[in-house]
Amino acid sequence: MPSVMLSAVLEEEPDLYEAFPPHVDPSGITILTDSPPGKKAPLKNFEEIQPLIQQGRKRELKLIIRENSWPINSPVRASLWPALCRQHQHGKSMLDGFYWDMVTQVFGTVELPDKPIMLPPFVEATHCLGYHLTRKGRAVADRVVSVLGYACPDITYSPSLYPITAALLHFMPEEECYHCMASLVASKEKMFITQTKLLNEVTWKTVMQIAKKHAKSAAQHLSRLSGAIGPERIYADWQWWILAALPFPHLVRVLDCFFHEGIKVFYRVALAILILFHKHTTNQNSEWYAEATKNGVDHAIDKFCRNMPVSPTKLLRTAFTIRALSSQYISRVFIKTEMTLKSKQVITGSRLVRSRSSDNLPTSQSQVNIQMMSHTLTIRERMSEETCKQMLFTLWSWLPVRITMYQPVLLYTTEEHGCSLTTFYVRVEHHEPTLLMIKTCNNEVFGAYCSTRWFERNQKDERGNRQAYFGTGETFLFSLYPERAKYPWVGCAADGRSDEKLSHGSELFMAADSKMITIGGGDGQAIWMDENIRYGKTDRCSTFNNPPLCPSGDFEIRVLEVYGFAGA
């Protein structure tokens, strides 16, 4: 009888590797448990988490994902990861069968080819990490990435795209994986995957900058150990510490948080790795110090990550307890670094990234777009066509590189749609970015590039209060007539000031309600317009450090035009 009972128990015991699809080889996957059963509260299942996703309770969701150390073989990820990725999709959701239609369009069949699939040029062979995928699983990953390259021709360089695709395939079928990746690539509110060489460089320089402030001792220690090769070479590999070197159970727990919170999770984990590496190499008799001095700190960090001496829970706890490292600060450092690199490109003529619009100078496509814009630009009255075109060429060269690839679309003009703030919001508020151009009754022409949707005026913070100001440091002011000048955010100005000195008044980009619109704040408002879009005023402000955009300060609006960018 006991033998019968024992066999029944064995038959009922769940398969440890049941969570993985057929295209995964689970034999090499280590099942880690962070603590003995009963020591912690039971782990949440997807049915308990789903309402938080549906109701947009992002802060609660963030804390639950951070605190629930689901084992690598938990079935929760098959539902959780797709639901987290769907939060970030831009535009309409894809119809069932869309992916397979794309596969047929690209390959002529939905059958997996016997021959290797040619990957897009933005993928390098060294980036093709398959983790525990079988040979068929690798072919599936190749196909997903190839279709993404076909659907997203503007991706020029993306080291993390293949590894993240491969990781997703450990917990879901091919079509679901494609939908997840398409959502992450197209995400507007958060960054997940860099898509150009320029932005890839921005990320590692951002890690280096925030490490100097928020992991100061570890950063100094790394700099000393780096010797002749210098710390820059070490930081350039920061994503591979996470994606290539961490044990797979650690990586999966990092990705749990990443799919909800974005690339800032990777930044925090990179700093945690530096902090832990510092802790284990401070003693000159330690094996890791010997490794660093013998084989170089880059090899030592890689080996340290592969043999991570702490659990996934401890790694994440180290990452999320770095104090005062806010998303706003990370975003500020990122944008300032991006602007600095773009400025260097223009000054030196270097080609860090070859997108279709290169260095913001008008390409043939841009010239077509500008020509289209000039035909609808009613503010061009009393200007020659050549003067108008030159003004627009200048404005086009100031736009972020990625935006110059899109066709401008006239969303709102007071001459056709009337002078009403309500109409303005109806026609404009869901577009991002937008370009506002004002012509005054004294023929001055000025405006602003607004990086964020005007709908954000309705958003509430984590405490439920409406945000007074919103927007990002990509927002800028400009004047086109009689003077031509661009006024970027002061956080991007190359004047040597450190980020810590920026006051609250220097980050007031956009504000709006039913009575007015404001762009720029702090000791004045750069552009203010009333609810009838008839009168406005302009003054110097701390956010852009601009002079008044017209001499009198007060102005009467002759025409306001707002442009969006099709497909942006």
From TrEMBL:
Keywords from the UniProt entry: Cytoplasmic vesicle, Membrane, Synapse
GO cellular component: cytoplasmic vesicle membrane; endomembrane system; synapse
Chief place of localization: membrane
KW Disulfide bond (keyword) present: no
Pfam families documented for this protein: RabGAP-TBC, TLD
Membrane topology: Peripheral membrane protein
Subcellular location: Cytoplasmic vesicle membrane; Endomembrane system; Synapse
PROSITE patterns: TLDC
Protein name: TLDc domain-containing protein
